[in-house]
Every structure is written in structure tokens, then in C-alpha cells.
Predict the structure.
Amino acid sequence: MSAKIDIYNPSELGAPLGQYTHVTRVKANEFLFIAGMLAADAQGHVVGEGDFDAQTAQVFRNIDAALRSAGASWGNVVQFTTYLVHSQDIPKFMEFRLREFPKMFSNGVYPPNTLLMVDRLVKEPFLVEVQTIAAI
């Protein structure tokens, strides 16, 4: 059995404030929990130091690699949790999602996302981290 994923917005909640949906209902045999991905390459070096857009692109490349390692794709994602270090980067993050999510989620349905501000990430140069849950 493959996962049955229903991503939707209950009318009582109104429209989401960005590229996400309020609720995901899942029936699956297996879940994939992906640790928060950072803008690091395979050797652990920071990619795009000081460049939020470059870091965000690397974060999502890393998530893609983690998904593919389990035979999954963006269509299997049921939830994101995003951590940003600077609130000034929220508009940049929203712009990235507006630009890239239609390519990643071709059906135009985006998983729920919780966006949190944190003091810092594991290393000072990292600006964004995204944790992912997928259903297979």
C-alpha cells in the first residue's frame, strides 16, 4: 500500500498566509522523518555563507537527496518545520517558496509548514534549517 495523502484547508481556518496548507491527513505504511537540513555540502562545509537565498536552495537540495534516498519525492512530504535566525529573512523565504514550490509540488498543493524564529542554529553561519516528514 502506498501512502494516501490528503492535504487541505478547512474553510473555518481561512486562507494560509503563505505557500503551505493547514492540514495533512495521512494513511501510510511508513513515515520518513528527516532531521533539520542545513546549508551544508556532503563534506559538512557551509554553502552560501551570508547568502540566505543560496543557503535556502542548498537546504532544499539536501531535503531532496534525503527523500530520494528512501525512494520518495516531494509528493510524499506531509509537513515542514522551518527555523530562521533572522526575522528579516521571512520575506526572502516566502519569495523562495513562491518561486520554487510550484516546481517541487506540481499539483499546487503545499504541505503544512510551521515557521519559527531561533537565536541561532548549530553553527553561527547557518541562517535556515528545515525539518521534513514524509509518508511512503
Notes: The chain has a mean pLDDT of 96. The two ends are 9 Å apart (CA to CA).
